[in-house]
Amino acid sequence: xxxxxxxxxxxxxxxxxxxxxxxxxxxxxxxxxxxxxxxxxxxxxxxxxxxxxxxxxxxxxxxxxxxxxxxxxxxxxxxxxxxxxxxxxxxxxxxxxxxxxxxxxxxxxxxxxxxxxxxxxxxxxxxxxxxxxxxxxxxxxxxxxxxxxxxxxxxxxxxxxxxxxxxxxxxxxxxxxxxxxxxxxxxx
Length: 188
Fold this sequence. Notes:
Layout: H1 9-21, H2 28-33, H3 53-61, E1 66-73, E2 76-87, H4 94-105, E3 109-113, E4 116-121, H5 124-137, H6 144-159, H7 166-177
Antiparallel strand pairs: 1-2, 2-4, 3-4
């Protein structure tokens, strides 16, 4: 694009070919417009191991993969959750990846859903003893770092029993409302 090649028919085809091989491939609209273009086949994943703690931190930081959640049932605090979700790209490695996270941390569980899978940790002791220390040693980057910070503050309040008081519930709800999609990016 910097060279303005995208303005030529050949350059546009190069971009469409690249798009066909990335993530979920071409949209239905692009498939109709370019029926003769298909992405490269992805190799089947037979082995999945977590190579480095910074990879996990980066994977969690990037895009929509990692989530630090505070859950409520009605207006009552229910719990904390750490979740990583990933779309199935058809290479056979999604379940292996999610199960490798269970093996890596020694906690959590995997559950598949339509065209994606989720790794999730909900047990409070695992969050306090494993997940929070991990991300303190391997920092989250970007705006998600603020979500992690808020999540840790909620965990401290729950640990202190503050969630059992009406005032504490309001404080936790306010903190939750700032997180994830509620976060204003101007704060960062």
